[in-house]
Fold:
Amino acid sequence: MSSTACYHCGLPVPAGSNFSVRIGGVERPMCCPGCEAVAGAIVAGGLDNFYRYRDSRNERPEEVPPEDRWAAYDLAEVQRQYVRPFGDDDRQLASLLIGGISCAACVWLIEKHLGQLEGVDKVSVNANTQRAQVCFDPSAIRPSQLFAELARIGYRPAPATSANSEDLIQREQRAALRRLGVAGLGTMQVMMFAVALYFGASSGIETELQSYLRWVSLLVATPVVFFAARPFFSAAWRSLRGRSLSMDVPVSLAIGLAYVASFYATVFETGEVYFESISMFTFFLLLGRTVEMRARHRAGLASGGLAQLLPLTATKVEKGEENSVPVAALAAGDTILLRPGDTIPADGEVIEGESGVDESLLSGESAPRQKSPGSTVYAGSVNSDSSLLVRVTAAGQATRLSAIERLVERAQLEKPRQVALADRVAGWFVGLVLVAALTAFAFWWHLDAERAFWVALSVLVVTCPCALSLATPAAVAAATLRLQQIGLLVAAGNLLETLPRITRVVFDKTGTLTRGEPHITQIELLRDGWTEQRVKDCAAALESHSNHPLARAFRAWRGNLGASELRLHTGQGVEGVVDGERLRLGRADFAVQPTGAAAPEIPAAEGQWLLLADTEGPVAWIALGDSLRPSARGAVARLQAEGLHTELLSGDQSAEVARLAAAAGIRDFRAGASPEDKLAHLQQLQRRGDKVLMVGDGLNDVPVLSGADASVAMLSAADLAQSRADAILLNGDLMVLPDAIALARKCRRIVRQNLTWALGYNALALPLAVCGLVPPWAAAIGMSASSLIVVLNALRLSRSRVGKRPVGNLLPTGQVSSGLISRG
Amino acid sequence: MDSLYFLIPIAILFIGLAVKLFFWAVNSGQYDDLETEGRRILFDDDESGVDVPEQDERDD
Structure:
């Protein structure tokens, strides 16, 4: 493999590939025509500064689709979904969902590039939500041109039709920020007053000034309690109505009672005030929840849902006439025409034509299925090489694609739920504290009725669950941020609690363990005078007009040689003239057909073998295969070293599964599993007591992803897979997985330390308070200090260097260091 | 110590203003995208002709 990396996407440039673009005066190598076209478009727009600004590599773009790919977005009924009038004149505002935004420079590039177009007034892109708002003049530019331009600079545009949920999320985020701001500003002020009061308590203070400081503290703390802490009160109320005790109940109890007591103390100039503790506690809790919420929203927003997998329009054939109709209008019995490269909009039966259909989205199978009259095609798969006439048998909700979606919903219902550790502790903690407070009250009532109320109150305040309720969220928030830094976006809050318990990691094959793209693995020359490079160039020239998935393997050498008279023989191969020589590439019997010779025997090595032949006979064998991600082997080895079982579960039936499993070092593998089989297998494992982490990317993995105890989807995964997974692997580096598990274990350890500390503190303070021995100022300081210690302990997670040293005190010794492989 | 009776109310007035300013900033979408906006200033160094589109302004 060549050592040069593509300047655009960072993938290695294959030897003999001649794509390059002049950027900033220097000729930069490109790995494929797609990257070359995108980089060329960026430079042509005068935006080559993009390459200086960006801080991460771009996604490898698909080849730029033809302009008419986007024509459907101009239809009035489609536009209604994402375009709305804006302002007083005829301006319109389009909401777009843009895939492939990786850093702030992408935002700059998109805004600049679209902003240069005639008729575009204003562009604003939000990298967080991956959405763009484009204000344009419909008389000067069509929406489809916006889509085409976005595709030209290497992004994947789609209409943002789920605008409602986006508004909802935005409102939620803004409300959380406002609360956080009030709590933060309030805390700072009240803290300042509190320091004065602390000093006053130790070195004497005028009663008048003390009372004044208490009143201003009350003034500032009131909005914190009634505005910032409101979500806790409403959540606690919901939980009580549902007859359960979640952590929100003691939290609200603590905030509420401490506030009431302090209020009472301020008004009647007696007792002690706790305003600073309440404010700080509210602020820390809100901070933890906001971090978690932002991560969750970011993952959810990236998804446009299942419908985006289907095209918006279909070509309906009626009495010999072809009409473009919206897919929603299709019904069983209609006849539709599928051109090469079309995504199939509905389930149906082929009535005319023969073609290979790529069903990888549904089955995970890498090789296209050959379809002929009578065979069934499914919505969501892609027609690859020639036109088909199809009679629709099921559309909309009745398709197999929708059936998978329903399977997903079922799997999610059956997903093993896990109650957060803190919530389990909360139940008996609340009970215990209430019992202790009542006992203290009853006891002191007989002893000294005057003091009974204050002692009971100090029990409640001293045992404030601050530290206890901060223990988990603080650690989870810190770990979530750290995971995002190492490349794992956590979407589900309980992932960190589940990960340390995982016993088995199940991988999907295509796109997960492998890159998901065919590569040339081997070339076997059969004729003297030919070089490997010439074979690649000829094959690339022959495949240059093919939509076949395997043709992608030759992309890098396209354009080195030109081909003419290209003819596609469905299911067999291609034929054409290169440099005056008539060549055939494809199945062995097809390639040698004109010579009349018998086909040579297929080499024994693994892979999918294509034969290149000229008029005199066979020239070379080319083996194609999907190659392992470079990080796969190391990641599997490290997972196994940590005592986890690994397994490969694939929908592919070919011998590739066994080969790749062996290459990755996985002993257990299962091939040819349908989405239903995968889910059944998973549930069987779970019944046996395994806790399963599923790593996948395809739509066929979505049911298992939803049903597994924990799930991780690749960034390149189908949108639906991303939205249903607990986490998204941002950089495709599988080594992040063992790191994440190590970090989750560390997080669990810190949560336990925090809980131990919090419970220990309470266990010490409770008896003292019941005996009436805790002076109020000590209670206030103890409360704040115990919260701070918990937060600082949790912050250790955000600095932890995962993956560089053994993190395994939970594992038997000896197993730990043996399999650690340093990261390359 | 008498100055405290005068200074603290002023401080509280300032907090009130700060909160109001913060609410305005949040409501006008300035915190919607925390990653991009901080770096935007670095991008437009040698391009002066084109003006930068504002962050989302159509707020309720």
User: Anything to note?
Assistant: The CA atoms of residues 665 and 695 of chain A lie 16 Å apart. The longest helix of chain A spans residues 163-203.
